[in-house]
């Protein structure tokens, strides 16, 4: 290998070298992404779940509920605004906060609410 080729080879390998700080930065970014994924998962886990019994949905509660149209109306008028929702889940009362938002699917909630069959 000529002296010129050796210098070019050394120059390109230095430019391609990965430093410890590069690796540390990648690890830091990976940890940030994993933390964001966990936070998003926690939100999904704490939202409405199958078999949740809704006892309050915004201004609609067990005292004034007439039909699912009441819930639909509250959702439509609350797009982009937080809604307080209370559910009974496995016998325990849980307070949730939902923000009806447009997404790729139908509706604003990303779920179907059906009447309780007793």
UniProtKB/TrEMBL annotation:
Signal peptide extent: none
GO cellular component: cytoplasm; nucleus
Domain of life (superkingdom): Eukaryota
Gene Ontology biological process terms in this record: proteasome regulatory particle assembly
Keyword terms of this UniProt record: Chaperone
Oligomer and partners: Interacts with PSMC3. Part of a transient complex (modulator) containing PSMD9, PSMC6 and PSMC3 formed during the assembly of the 26S proteasome.
Chain's role: Acts as a chaperone during the assembly of the 26S proteasome, specifically of the base subcomplex of the PA700/19S regulatory complex (RC). During the base subcomplex assembly is part of an intermediate PSMD9:PSMC6:PSMC3 module, also known as modulator trimer complex; PSMD9 is released during the further base assembly process.
Family per similarity comment: Belongs to the proteasome subunit p27 family.
Protein name, UniProt field: 26S proteasome non-ATPase regulatory subunit 9
Species of provenance: Suricata suricatta
């Amino acid at each position: 290998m000529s002296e010129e080729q050796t210098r070019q080879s050394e120059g390109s390998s230095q430019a391609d070298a990965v430093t410890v700080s590069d690796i540390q930065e990648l690890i830091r970014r990976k940890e940030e992404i994993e933390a964001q994924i966990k936070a998003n998962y926690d939100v999904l886990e704490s939202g409405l779940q199958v078999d949740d019994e809704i006892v309050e949905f915004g201004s609609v509660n067990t005292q004034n509920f007439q039909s699912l149209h009441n819930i639909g109306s509250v959702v439509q008028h609350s797009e982009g605004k937080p809604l307080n929702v209370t559910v009974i889940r496995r016998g325990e009362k849980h307070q949730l906060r939902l923000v009806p938002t447009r997404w790729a699917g139908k509706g604003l909630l990303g779920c179907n609410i059906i009447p309780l069959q007793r």
